[in-house]
Hints:
Blueprint: H1 4-61
Amino acid sequence: MPSVLGLMKQREARARQELESWSEVLEQAQVEVDAVRERVEGARVRREELASVLAEESALGE
Length: 62
């Protein structure tokens, strides 16, 4: 029969493996979030530039 201490060590080892697995998932998710954040920021900058150009052309056309 396994000892209580041995069972606790096994439980701890499984928990550490689970933690490592979830940490990897979290790291990959953060990479994805950062990439999408860059795309959003780029789209915002391009939209603002376009709005500025259209406003300038509109002002020249009046």
